[in-house]
Write a structure and sequence with these properties.
The chain has 262 residues and is of the alpha+beta class. 20% of the residues lie in helices and 24% in strands. It has helices at residues 15-20, 36-39, 51-65, 95-110, 191-194, 223-229, and strands at 4-5, 42-46, 79-86, 123-136, 147-152, 156-162, 175-180, 185-188, 196-200, 233-239. Strands 1, 2, 3, 4, 5, 6, 7, 8, 9 and 10 form a 10-stranded antiparallel β-sheet that branches. It is globular, with a radius of gyration of 18 Å. The structure holds N-oxalylglycine and manganese (II) ion. Manganese (II) ion is lined by residues 136, 138, 198. Manganese (II) ion binds at residues 136, 138, 198.
């Protein structure tokens, strides 16, 4: 299958974005400097599975989630309107689903320069059309240096925001945004895993200053089109075990295969 790797450009954030993320108002974290260094810690492989395989995964996972309700409706919930489950081995998965998951795991292992050990059972998040995932850093108590997600059903924007004060003005941008199309696999590693919060934006997060939103809103920089385009999304998140593959300082080194080398 043909795969395309994209390193999408950095996007500047604005004060409004920072406030929405509940960062310190007025903290001057906005830099206009592109940091190729940071960009190398985000990877995106597009079309890692076919439409038919996507349908297969969606059908299987939806059947498992059928009886659950969407949770997280409190104003302060980090994750809003979601269901989740783990694809642990005790589940009797259809062979085709299992095959696709094994293939994605193999692809993940090949995508790092460092040797990656065993991965945890994949974690499924179902966000409904009104759902979103607010800024957070995955706890080091629950997983190690590997963090990848397969996006299914619809496009969303992932936002990464610097968690700590920048080391020196102008060295790092405060906010990075990436478009996550369905059937793509994203990777966050090194500083983007440990020092940046990540979030998956929802309908209310439109930023008219950022042309990236047109990737979702069918090439139109228009809030109502963006809102209409934000629909139910499933993700299958792959992580390693806590303490595996490094700590805050470790960069595993993404090597996105079948594509341009980092
Ligand atoms: C998470 C998370 C992102 C995604 O579950 O911690 O950040 O793509 N998920 O669903
Ligand atoms: Mn997370």
């Amino acid at each position: 299958m043909k795969m395309k790797c994209t390193y999408l450009g950095l996007r500047r954030g604005g004060a409004a974005v920072l406030n929405r993320c509940m960062r310190k108002p007025g903290a001057s974290m906005i830099s206009r400097t592109l940091s190729t260094n940071l960009d190398s810690h985000f990877g995106l492989l597009e079309n890692v599975i076919s439409h038919a395989e996507e349908e297969e995964l969606v059908r299987y996972v939806s059947s498992l989630l059928r009886r659950k309700r969407y949770e997280g409706n409190h104003w302060d919930s980090v994750i809003v309107q979601y269901k989740e489950l783990e694809l642990h081995e005790a589940r009797k998965m259809p062979e085709r689903v299992e095959d696709v998951l094994r293939r994605v795991e193999a692809l993940i292992k090949q995508s790092y320069r460092s040797e990656i050990g065993q991965l945890q059972p994949p974690h499924v998040i179902d966000l409904d059309a009104l759902g979103r995932i607010g800024p957070h850093i995955d706890s080091i108590k629950h997983s190690g240096g590997v963090l990848c997600g397969l996006s299914l059903m619809s496009s969303r924007i992932m936002e990464l925001a610097q968690d700590a004060e920048p080391q020196a003005a102008g060295t790092s941008p405060a906010i990075l945004r990436y478009h996550l199309p369905p059937r793509s696999l994203y990777f966050l590693e090194g500083p983007l895993r440990y020092d940046y919060t990540h979030s998956v934006l929802g309908k209310d997060d439109f930023d008219s200053k950022d042309p990236l939103f047109s990737a979702i809103a069918m090439a139109k920089d228009n809030e109502s089109e963006y809102k209409a385009a934000v629909q139910r999304r499933l993700s299958i998140v792959f992580r390693d075990f806590p303490g595996e593959n490094g700590d805050k300082k470790t960069t595993l080194g993404l090597r996105l295969i079948n594509n341009v080398e980092n």
